[in-house]
Structures are given as structure tokens and as C-alpha cells.
Amino acid sequence: MFEGAAVVRLEDGSGRCAGRVEVKHQGQWGTVCGDYWDMTDAAVVCKQLGCGSALKAPKYGHFGPGSGPIWMDDVRCRGTESALSDCTHNGWGQHNCNHRKDAGVTCSGFRLVNGSTACEGRVEIHVLGTWGSLCASHWDLLDAHVLCRHLDCGFAESIPRGGPFGRGTGPVWRDSFHCDGTEAHLGQCPVTALGASPCSHENNAAVICSAGSASLRLVGGGSRCDGRVEIFQHGTWGRVLDDQWDMQEASVVCRQLRCGEAETAYNPPKPQRGTGPVGLRGVRCAGHEANLTLCNTSLPESMLAAGIAEDVGVVCWGSRQVRLVNGPGRCAGRVEIYYQGSWGTICDDSWDLPDATVVCHQLGCGGAVKAVGSAHFGEGSGQIWLDAVNCSGAEAALWDCPAGSWGQHDCGHKEDAGVDCSEFMALRLENSDGCSGRLQVLYNGTWGSVCSNSMTLKTVSLACKELGCGDRGTLETRLPYGRASGPAWLDRVECGERNSSFWQCPSAPWDPQSCDDLRDEAHITCTGQRSSTLNIPFA
Fold it and tell me: How far is residue 183's CA from residue 192's CA, in Å, rounded to a whole number?
């Protein structure tokens, strides 16, 4: 601990990295008043506790009222302090506060270690008092972008494999994050761990963020690689204005942001224009520069006065995305592509399993179980971007497949294509219209049982919650002898304190022969009731 620093703890939260802020002074624990409490103050607490960065700075008793003295009031941290007690405040015990206004903190529980800067390293997660490495099996650039942005480290330049930042020593968490890249922090991304394969320290997730080179950003688009251009100068973000913005300048912006080639250079329509300070007015690039500031930005006033300088925007190749919508879960639905700044659908002409396979792989949803057409997941709207798609199944992205020209088709939305992927999962109670029966999970397109070995009441309660049958239940033990029919997908589902969803619980890997005796199959009875049979999907 820091010499001379008052010890800090977080109480009545979900773990040691979230809760009401308490400070130990003169041997006694006390609270901190929420007046003027903000994210800068919270960041210092998270740093002092080794809990990553701050997610929230709730005040006014969010984690309940404390007791004892209120040690600090009107706290004002700069953010560079090593401990909360280094921040300015009214003086120990000097306040005009009560415990209903006690300050709180929620830390991210994510950090990068063993890098040469604070913005690169092995990804570690703080869970129930323990830092552990994250398995890289499903770690991708979208997840890494979210983490870099949250850590104020720009965007993700790369996610190196092979352990360049050394081996961890703690546990290896098998959580898979499923970010779309727009989230503010990893805690907002869907997470699964159920059925994940074992992972070793040779396969730790890592990231190298852009850090100081993130002097440009694109705002108002549907991804980090399209939108209105802003530049960071002198501690603030400013608009970029130009009267002759074209593909040369757009190419430099896209290259600087590691977003691939430029597709479009444009001036945003009036509703999308900026209103803040101007960071750069007038720029001329040859197109090969590595950075926008290396272009000619010292244009004579006479040249600038000749035209009307407006906000500028770009669409880069890297803005292209694919998603599944209107389906029962993350890994099933109507296929949509984000292209040229807008979402559109795919026509089902010649749509087949290899095409669906590319989509499923691209989304981290395993393989394809079904390729469906005729607007199986409802009709989309807007553009129909692709027709006559003809993938081999080995392509990295749907737009790498042979197809007609963008926007060229002879289809209507009643022909929108969709997919079912193998990692679409759902839960049900077999042969039951109530809240009691054999627990089954859908995986790889097939319903199978869940084995009861190591199953705790926490696991049963989360299953009941997913099924809409209340939040408590019991595991039935008087079961018949005999062999199970159909696959038994899961065993050793061990939900714990950190899990808020059945899909986040650790278990043995997916295996259609997880148990072969009827006595090992999980039959549960939930305390709640529901009006009709539900299949509760997740992914």
C-alpha cells in the first residue's frame, strides 16, 4: 500500500471492486460524502484498489447508507493521485452530509499487464477478489476496441497471439465477450462461458491499443470506421472543416485509423454537422501520408476564403459489419450488412449453407445449421445490398464472397435471407407446460439433456430464471434407471456468485455424451409459474 495513504475499501457491492467507498482514518472506518463526487474521484479509488478503471461513480447512497464517521466531503481529485487520501477535501471529518449521500464506485475489473505502456498487454479480469487472464479463444478486434476505448487508449491496433506479454499465474477465465464495437465497456457486451473448452496460459488474450496516436476519431456513424472527422489538439476534440474534401484526404484518415481503404469522402448533411470548436480548417493531402497532420494544413487565407468550409466525413472499408436481427438470439436471425453508412439485407437467390457458414464464422457463432430464405425472420427494410451470393464457405467475411454488385438485385424484402448458427442456444423443460421437468439445452441445432453432476442450487435458480419460472428451484433426485435418449450436451454446470445468467456459468466442454445414465440427467422443479411453454434463447 502507498506510504501515508489511508486504506480504502468498497462495501455492500457485488465484490471488492464495487460498492460504497469507505476510508480508514485513525483506526476507524468511515464513509465519503457524495457531494461533487465524480468519475475522476472514482478512477483514483479503482487505481488504488488495483481494480482497473472506473465504470460508474454513483453518489447519494446507491450502495446503501454506511455507518460511523463521514471522513471526507467535497472530494476533488485530479486523477493522477495514487490514493484517495491524496485528493483535496474539506479535512478529515469536516462535512455537512449524512449517510444517505454516501459515495460509491463501480470499477471495470479489467486491466492490461506486462506491456511496455499502459495501453498494451495481456488482458486480465478481476473476479471475486482474484485477477486472472482471459482466454483468447473468442477474443476479437471488436472486443479489443471496446476495451481500448474504455481504458482511454484509443482503438485496438492488433490482438497478438502466442503470449508476447508473458504467462499469467492466476486462473484463466473462459468468458467469451460478444461485442459489436459500440459498447462503452466490456461489461455491456453479452458474455458466455457455458460449454467452453479448457484454456491454458499459452492462449491468453492480449491487445496493443493505439494510445497516443488516436488523435483522430469518427463520430455519428454506425462503427468506429465511418462518420464525421474530429481531431484531438491541445487537450480537446475539434471539428475538421474543408471546402475541397475528397478521396485523398479520406484515404489518409482511414489509414491513420487502421480502417482499411477509403470508400467515400463526404460532407455530412446539416443535422449531422458538428457544433463544437474547430480543430482544423482546410487540409490538402497527396493521399499517401501516414497522418492527417502531415498533410498541408497551412493553406493561405485567400484559398480558404474561395470556398465554403464545411464539416467532413469518411466511410472506410473497415466500417462494414454483419449482424443477425429479428431472431430468437444473437446467433440466429435475418442477415444484415452495414455498407456505405446504412444497414441492408441479403437476397435469398442461391442462398445456401456455405453462405450461412461464412456469416456464422464471422460472428463467432460456430458453424451453420440452416440457411433460410423467404424472410423466415421477417422482412427487413431499406437497401437490399447483395444478391446471388456464392461463398465457398472458407471466406473471412461475407463481402469477400462472389456476388452481384452492391445494391444491384431483382428482389423484394420478402426474399430476405437468414441463418441459424450452431452456437444459437436455448433452454426448455421437456414435455412440460409448467415449471417442472427434464432440463434441456439447444446446441448445434439439437435439443439435448443437461447432466446433474456438480449442479448446485445456484445453477438451478439461474435455469429457473432463464425459463421465466421464478428465481428458485430444486433438483429432483428420484429418477428412473436406463440409458438416456438423444445427446446429453452438458455436465458440471457450476454457476457461482459472479454469474448473473445461466449462459455465463462455467461447465465441462460441449459433449453429446456428457452422461449416459438417466439418473444423471437434471430434472428440476422451479418455484414460480408461467402461463405457457417457453423456450428461452440466448445466443
Answer: 17
Contact yes or no for 502/462 (Cβ under 8 A)? yes
Asked if residue 108 lies in contact with residue 53, where contact means CB atoms within 8 angstroms, the answer is yes
Give the angle 238-117-44 at the CA atoms, nearest 5°.
75
Grid-cell match 477478489, residue found:
129
- Identity of the residue numbered 322: V
Distance of CA 143 to the CA centre of its chain: 6
CB atoms within 10 A of CB 107: 27
* β-pairing verdict for 70-72 and 28-32: parallel
Count of CB atoms situated within 10 Å of the CB of 483: 7
Q: Where are the beta strands (DSSP E) in 115-214?
A: 120-127, 130-134, 156-158, 172-173, 176-177, 191-192, 206-209
Which class for 363: exposed (0-12), middle (13-18), buried (19 or more C-beta within 10 A)? buried
Please state the separation of Cα 7 from the chain's center in Å. Answer: 32
DSSP secondary structure string, 248-282? Answer: HHHHHHHHHTT--SEEEEE---GGG---S-EEEE-
Q: In Å, how far from its chain's centre is CA 23?
A: 32
- CB within 8 Å of 523: residues ≥ 6 apart: 436, 437, 438, 439, 452, 475, 476, 479
Classify residue 470 as left (phi > 0), alpha (psi -120 to 50) or beta: left
Strand partners, 126: 131
> Consecutive 10-residue runs of the chain (539 residues): their mean pLDDT?
72 82 92 91 90 84 89 91 91 90 89 88 84 90 90 87 86 90 84 89 90 76 92 84 92 93 92 84 90 80 61 94 92 95 94 96 93 95 94 94 93 95 91 80 92 91 90 78 74 87 92 83 82 50
Closest by alpha carbon to 347, among 410, 421, 420, 419?
Answer: 410
DSSP conformation class of 501? S
SS3 of residue 203 by DSSP: helix
- What single-letter amino acid sits at 175? D
Q: How many whole angstroms separate alpha carbon 360 and alpha carbon 367?
A: 6
Helix (H, G, I), strand (E, B) or coil at 400: helix
The maximal CA–CA distance of the chain, rounded, in angstroms, is 91
Local structure of residue 457 (DSSP, 8 states): H
**Whats the size of the chain, residue-wise?**
539
CA 71/CA 137 separation, integer angstroms? 46
Beta strand 473-475 with 54-56 is unpaired
pTM of the full predicted structure?
A: 0.79
Q: Is residue 421 within 8 Å of 367, Cβ to Cβ? A: yes
